[in-house]
Amino acid sequence: MPVSRERLWLGAAAVMLIGVDLGNRVLASNDEARFPLLAQDILTRGAWLFPQLNGAPYLHKPVLVAWLIALVSLPAGHVTQFTAALPLALAALVTAFVIHALGRELFGGSAGLLAGLVALTTQGFVTFSRTPVPDMVMGACISGSLWMLVRMTRGAPRAWIGFYGLAGLAFWTKGTAGLMPLVIALAWTLVSARPDKWRALRLPRGALVLAAIVAPWWIGGLLVDAPAMRGVVVSDQLFWYLPRMPTPSALALPVAHALGIVLPWTVIGPAALVGAVRAARSSDPAREGVTFALVWAGLTLALVAISHEQRFRYYLPLVPPVALLLGWWLARAIAARRSAGRVFGVGWALSALALLTAYHVEMRQQNADYDYPRLSATLQEALGDPEPVATWEIHHLPLAFYLGRPVRPIGDEADLQRAAAAPPHGVVIVRDATLAKMREREGLIVLRRERFAGRDISIVSRRM
């Protein structure tokens, strides 16, 4: 199949899959609302390097995703649900094409197309191509960086700039986690045991390029707030990724996340893995490419699995190497038996339909449970424009996004009393169950009661 037709098929499939329900998902957690709020602050104040979150400079992670959201929101002048999700959708599209290019480089055109189609119909892609968290953009940068790695080891003269440059961009999405391409490159070079690959890495020059890209974030953060930045380096960029104690949960959770992120293709994953290991140990023509994908997948899984914090989306970078292995295995199966192609086509269509249906149902349920737009409209009716708002046991950043003003989180009864008494008339949103347990409620007035996230909540104040 000509390359242009491969890209046409892949692009059509990607637009169809990624475009469904794009922008319809309510931002329901602090993680989902954080970068849209940062983007809104960029548009409002023009603070591109260190935008503020609820009035304080955001130093915990670099802000590439906030920049992208701000850029696509410029025509409207403000961030919406759609513009918040659009950069992630574009990153997913780019990643699919990069996987195709990598598969074509390593295994041939058919394998590249199949790998791209597999990636598009994984649970990870369907979910996080619509959710404004940094992981999809980081995955696109990592995949692009490793594509350049393959090309530079095959003699492409300027691919090394792309390798280190895209690794630097990956850093600007989530910090040190984005430097994963360097670890994978070193490991693959060691496994290959070929001196020409060491020379191809151009480590001294590459280190300078990488340092030039990542240094502005460190230097700028130290200039803005040196103590806070040092704390971020220790807690978020180092301790966050330290290994955990080996408990049953610590061992089982990474396996569950790794299998879940590539659903439904985990069904044929074991067969593809066995075939890949055999090819890597033999004189198979695909040996080098299979070894590369195995090293990429194995190191990604290991580095994420040992980290202190475990979240499902952290395993998204596992999708590209797994898709490459599956694309290679499927291409061989289809070449050996033509009927396998028809089976794949039916299975792919059913997978796409099932994943999109499941996402749509889950999205509608989340939108109904966490109806922050309705809650913000209720608050607008219950309070005057300048009045400060706080929440207890309810995500504050989504409310800040839809309300268009800072919302402060509180964590105890004394903090609630202070927030409710803040001038001119503070307002606090709190669960009724928590309010009922308070020892001192005298003077608090319940302005409104609502049903939110399956629980009864109250909007309280100390108005006279």
Architecture overview:
By secondary structure, the protein is α/β, with parallel strands linked by helices. The chain folds into two domains: about 5-365, no CATH class; about 370-460, D-Maltodextrin-Binding Protein, domain 2 (3-Layer(aba) Sandwich), CATH 3.40.190. About 65% of the residues lie in helices and about 5% in strands. The chain contains 20 helices and seven strands. It has helices spanning about 5-20, 30-45, 65-75, 80-105, 110-120, 125-130, 135-150, 160-175, 180-190, 195-200, 205-235, 250-260, 270-280, 285-305, 320-335, 340-370, 370-380, 395-405, 415-420, 430-435, and strands at about 50-55, 55, 390, 405-410, 425-430, 445-450, 455-460. The strands form two sheets. Strands 4-3-5-7-6 form a five-stranded mixed β-sheet, sandwiched between helices. The N and C termini lie far apart (about 75 Å).
Task: Provide tags for this entry.
five-stranded mixed beta sheet; 2 domains; two-stranded antiparallel ribbon; 464 residues; 65% helix; 7% strand; globular; alpha/beta
Give a brief rundown of this model.
By secondary structure, the chain is α/β, with parallel strands linked by helices. The protein contains 20 helices and seven strands.
State the end-to-end CA separation.
Answer: 75 Å
Q: Helical content, roughly?
A: 55-70%
Calculate the mean pLDDT score and round it: 90
Biggest sheet, strands in spatial order? 4-3-5-7-6
- Most strands sheet: 5 strands, mixed
**Order of helix and strand elements from N to C terminus:** HHEEHHHHHHHHHHHHHHHEHEHEHEE
Structural class: alpha/beta
User: Got a strand count?
Assistant: 7
**So what's the oligomer here?**
single chain
Rounded to an integer, what's the Rg over CA atoms?
24 Å
Instruction: List the domain count as a whole number.
Output: 2
| Percent of residues in β-strands | 5-15%
Q: What low-confidence regions span 5 or more consecutive residues with pLDDT below 50?
A: none
